Prior knowledge:
By secondary structure, the protein is an all-beta fold.
Amino acid sequence: xxxxxxxxxxxxxxxxxxxxxxxxxxxxxxxxxxxxxxxxxxxxxxxxxxxxxxxxxxxxxxxxxxxxxxxxxxxxxxxxxxxxxxxxxxxxxxxxxxxxxxxxxxxxxxxxxxxxxxxxxxxxxxxxxxxxxxxxxxxxxxxxxxxxxxxxxxxxxxxxxxxxxxxxxxxxxxxxxxxxxxxxxxxxxxxxxxxxxxxxxxxxxxxxxxxxxxxxxxxxxxxxxxxxxxxxxxxxxxxxxxxxxxxxxxxxxxxxxxxxxxxxxxxxxxxxxxxxxxxxxxxxxxxxxxxxxxxxxxxxxxxxxxxxxxxxxxxxxxxxxxxxxxxxxxxxxxxxxxxxxxxxxxxxxxxxxxxxxxxxxxxxxxxxxxxxxxxxxxxxxxxxxxxxxxxxxxxxxxxxxxxxxxxxxxxxxxxxxxxxxxxxxxxxxxxxxxxxxxxxxxxxxxxxxxxxxxxxxxxxxxxxxxxxxxxxxxxxxxxxxxxxxxxxxxxxxxxxxxxxxxxxxxxxxxxxxxxxxxxxxxxxxxxxxxxxxxxxxxxxxxxxxxxxxxxxxxxxxxxxxxxxxxxxxxxxxxxxxxxxxxxxxxxxxxxxxxxxxxxxxxxxxxxxxxxxxxxxxxxxxxxxxxxxxxxxxxxxxxxxxxxxxxxxxxxxxxxxxxxxxxxxxxxxxxxxxxxxxxxxxxxxxxxxxxxxxxxxxxxxxxxxxxxxxxxxxxxxxxxxxxxxxxxxxxxxxxxxxxxxxxxxxxxxxxxxxxxxxxxxxxxxxxxxxxxxxxxxxxxxxxxxxxxxxxxxxxxxxxxxxxxxxxxxxxxxxxxxxxxxxxxxxxxxxxxxxxxxxxxxxxxxxxxxxxxxxxxxxxxxxxxxxxxxxxxxxxxxxxxx
Length: 880
């Protein structure tokens, strides 16, 4: 329903006044309601006869109650009480073409009027109204006087010469004070629902004229236009004043004042939780900031003659202009130079690149931000003061404990970062003896020197590779080390009852000393030994990988976490209580002699975690890594994965209890299902299985039966020999040789292949097997001749074939299958004595075998070469 000043006009006949008037059109722009324009009448309003439809209250006459609807008019020259008006806005809000509703003429009075949606009360010059209530969709056009108007979603348009006193603007109501108009003692309860400093202009109070003693409550907003003036305004928490014109003697009791470009504010008093914001191009003079109040001067803004009381906050940068006095005396921020500034209770000074600050006091709640290339000297940091800087800035001063600190030339010395503080170490720079008490330390590479201390919620964020050759210590409370990589020959020291969390970090140090509290490694790769004290706790979570020994502490391995125990660790791994759902591996970094490693645990709670143990089945002693349960219990379920660290083709039959992999000592006990074997261990001819003994320890024992692959190996040679023998003997001797040389023949042959059970491999016999073979043979004669009464034929042949047999173990169970793909080349010589019919065949043959033995658990490819020679019906075979 609001309209701007830019409107179009047309002539209309006003039958109330009996004149032509210039009326503003209802202009709209970008979907917003048009603004307000003042219609210019061509004739003065005079007492004229009313048309028959008009209701006139003559001077001296009083009318009580009544309703105006359906384009009715009431012209009041006397007094009208308690009227309800529901008509008059036929041409839209504040449009001079409107002719209906109630018209209060010069000398006329209206009291307790109710204006509903579509209703209009017009108060002309000399007229007065009181206690009008205007609902949504209704309006009051004021050129006279109005007292105690209530806008319950309705609108009040105060034109030049009009005076509105005591108006209350409730939700969605709007008061427009035009140039030359005055509003006093207005109470604004709406307008700020769109958020702080939102230029909605649809509700609340808009001032083009003068507003005096306005009270702005929660959700209220006063917009002072460029030509407007607001005097003696009080703004409470949740309300705000937007100044494009002039604001005089505003008091901010928790509310906000925004001084925009071209706007001025003079004599503003900022009390507790109040906030004056001077934007680029805005000007504030003689502002007083009391305790817990705040003055913010943006870049390009100006605030002069400021009185900053103790506990008041100044928020600005060296790109602004601010002068005044604080508890230290005169201060200034002018032309990129700040001097004697006090920062506390939310105060902040940004020292920009190339700018300087001297004699800055940073107390509790204050912040000094020195940008890269900025300079701050003689800084005094108090308890709770915040410093924001990086190693490209130049800062010097004293810490809250009186110790000197400095940043400059890529070197930071003795920094103390309190809660909220932040320092960034750039690549190639060095930070020495840094203390972080709840602040943020970011290292984008660079070097940590001396003692770096993290306390009370401190965060050390790494980006890239950072070097620590000295000590990183955590003494009080919790701390977080995250991201990047920390390398070097330094150490990490954890003291105090809190928790150090290392997250998404690659950590490589000489040692981590866990003296007190908890160390949590989350999604990190850590290569170091963890030397702990009893009563501490180490937690490996996420996808963490720890490469190193642990001695001693309580350890939790979450699912997905891995602990690699190297055989060259400086200490033996000893754990008090181990809760295990992840993976533990014994790893070897040595060459030469096998040296088994040991993990000693008091109590093991297996949660389907795995432990990989290296085993040497080909050795009689010192032949396995070992888990030792010392004086406690092994419960739950832990999976033992066995890694053959020796020659898989060689394995010894175990003797006694077998190869010990879990040892229970000092009265330790292990539950029946505490350990299960996660994979088959096979070496040589043996399978090895996990067994629990009466001493609560667990052993690997070779099984009495050969492993399934042994019969397969034994069958391979026989299968190859059988195939070669059949192929070599597949050529029949030729009789009555005749025809031409170079005769070529193609043959295809197949059949059964196998052996009966003759006692099995335990008795040195061939394993029982059954299968088939087949091949394609192509041969050609190279020579056919008659020599001394004998027919002589010589030639060559080639063959491609396949055989497959199923093999059984000695106990009749299925061992597996042997498959052979073979390619052969051979030559033959056939001699026939023509007179007697005697003959002889001589055959030489070579075969390339590609054999594959498959059991239920393993596949073993095995290439081989077969050589065969035949003379007559006798043969000699040799295989390699």
